[in-house]
Design brief:
Blueprint (H helix, E strand, L loop, with lengths): L1 E4 L5 H9 L3 E4 L5 H7 L5 E4 L6 H5 L6 E4 L9 H6 L4 E2 L6 H16 L2 H9 L18 E5 L3 H14 L2 E5 L5 H6 L3 E2 L3 H7 L2 E4 L13 H6 L4 E5 L8 H9 L3 E6 L19 E3 L8 H19 L19
Parallel strand pairs: 1-2, 1-3, 3-4, 4-5, 6-7, 6-9, 7-8, 9-10, 10-11, 11-12
């Protein structure tokens, strides 16, 4: 049997596949036209943020399982996979700690002006230390938008480390669950945005949440607040965010994710000095990459062996899955 890796995974995951007797091949490129040409003989495929589209799935008549390396599945045509009986597995826990730590790191980078301070020292401007433009996170109000696993862990870290007050906007999570965690559920989004010193995005990208944080909502944010996005780039209206940062309405923003990755050379984020950028590294720690690759590979092997995997994106296909 053949497993096509659409994007690289940790060697530990490859070892799991190889020990199960799979021949592991790597796609020569991640665009779907290339993948469609190279996936035909595959019994399994593993993808990361490249996803897998309808055309590529249709080109793989022997494909019995798709491994989604991570949590987000928006780049995958889940509807078509379900239609054709293709199980999709995913790893909802493996990168939670790493992404939550990334969110905290980005909050600190903006609060403490870490990037600007580094530049000042390199440019022999040591008196930057007198700028009085550095802030603590301690005791500030953090808004968590989307109280899933990563949002919850980010909130726990912020409260434990900095005694931050946590307010949560997550319409599909019951108030009892949020309150049991010692946090506050708010139902008025404008009120949340106007109250928070830091807003951290953790919600899924859907047609309803695309550019969810638009100019109007960014304007509703508290003066000199911080925005952190480790979820999906398309949640934010880029032009509106840049305007808010450059006008001084926001203290700053940090983006670890983008609508198009890699970030295009002409994207306006590149020229926005008040926005900290990182190349989607939240879940890319050594620890998270190892866990995610192994969990993905083990579940792919389970499906090929006829065993129901622990985490199915589309569990309704299991009884009528491809054989």
């Amino acid at each position: 049997m053949i497993c096509l890796l659409i994007q690289p995974i940790h060697p530990a995951g490859i070892d799991v596949l190889a020990k199960a007797g799979l021949e592991v091949r790597e796609a020569s490129a991640t665009d779907m036209a290339t993948v469609a040409q190279e996936i035909a003989a595959a019994d399994a495929a593993i993808t990361r943020n490249a996803g897998l589209d309808r055309t590529a799935m249709a080109a793989a008549p022997d494909l019995k399982v798709l491994g989604n390396h991570g949590i987000g599945t928006d780049p995958v045509d889940v509807s078509y996979a379900t239609e054709i009986g293709l199980p999709i597995i995913y790893t909802p826990h493996a990168n939670v700690q790493s992404v939550a730590e990334q969110a905290i790191a980005m909050m600190l980078a903006i609060s403490k002006r870490v990037r600007e301070a580094d530049t000042a020292v390199r440019e022999d401007r040591f008196d930057y230390r007198y700028a009085r433009d550095f802030r603590e996170l301690h005791g500030k109000t953090l808004a968590i938008i989307g109280f899933g696993r990563i949002g919850r862990r980010t909130a726990e870290l912020a409260r434990a480390a900095f005694d931050m007050r946590i307010i949560v906007y997550s319409p599909h999570v019951e108030a009892t669950a949020i309150e049991a965690a010692g946090m506050e559920k708010w139902d008025d989004l404008d009120a949340v945005l106007g109250e928070a010193d830091v807003v951290s995005l953790h919600q899924r990208l859907t047609p309803d949440t695309r550019e969810w944080l638009d100019g109007k909502r960014i304007s509703a944010m508290k003066k000199e607040a911080i925005l952190v996005n480790t979820a999906r780039g398309a949640l934010v209206d880029a032009e509106a965010l840049i305007a808010a940062v450059e006008s001084g309405h926001l203290r700053g923003a940090a983006m670890d994710v983008f609508e198009k990755e890699p970030l295009p050379a002409d994207h306006p984020y590149r020229g926005a000095r008040g926005i900290v950028l990182s190349p989607h590294i939240g879940g890319a720690t050594e620890e998270a990459m190892l866990r995610t690759a192994v969990e993905t590979a083990e579940q792919v092997v389970d499906v090929l062996a006829g065993r129901r995997p622990e985490y199915l994106v589309n569990p309704e296909v299991w009884e009528r899955r491809r054989q």
